[in-house]
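Researcher: Going back to the complex we discussed earlier. I've cleaned up the inputs and rechecked each line, so this should be the final set. Can you rerun the prediction on the complete assembly and write out the structure?
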Amino acid sequence: MIYESLARSDVTHILLAHPTQPETPTLTWEQFCDDYKSHYFDNASPYAGRCFVIDVDGEAVGQVNYNTIDMVKGRTELDIWMRSEATCGKGYGPDALRTLCDYLFREFGVHEFLIQPSASNLRAIRAYEKAEFRRVTLSQEDAEAEYGPKNSADSVYMTKNIEAQGGDRLG
Amino acid sequence: MAKNSLAGLESNLDFKSNMGKIDFMDKRAAERKGVVNYTAEEKHTGSPVTLRPATKKTNV
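Model: Rerun complete. Updated structure for the full complex:
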């Protein structure tokens, strides 16, 4: 489901869109496995990243994952995609992001979360804003120095800081 | 009310229950059920979302 929804679904053209290419790039299984190594699918290296299936009433509606945890900065980057167009726009994504952020805060002390949507993916940006992510206000140069290179040419940095929310959700 | 949960994780949750707006199951209960659940009542959309650790099988 995770690879299929990313590479061969009716949301693939959004997820894999490239700002300088008219055609949607393809993502092979091998390329996917290069990015999402085995530790994302077992409990071998929980600090290196993990994938989760988003279930609603027992049905898989998408996936969300975190990547390597920077323990010094208490930070990790998240990725999320839904299974299909039919599962978008229902609030599942923001719920899943909040759930994962709360879990990572509790379990690993992660307090800052980064996500990099495409600037053209306004629906994703709105969803992340609902999950309390905000666009980074640093200059591009400073943002890249702080958060690393952008995932793609039109990525925007969005972050969420649980401590900055005054612990309003975490008691 | 939304009910979000992380299922099937080998968690070491030692949180007290009724921490503000989030209710955690105690560790023994979680281990017995093989599941770690919590409920967060505010800001959520009302959709019951469960995060389940993915396995390779979910990719095929």
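Model: Worth noting: The longest helix of chain A spans residues 92-108.
Researcher: Good, that matches what I expected from the previous run.
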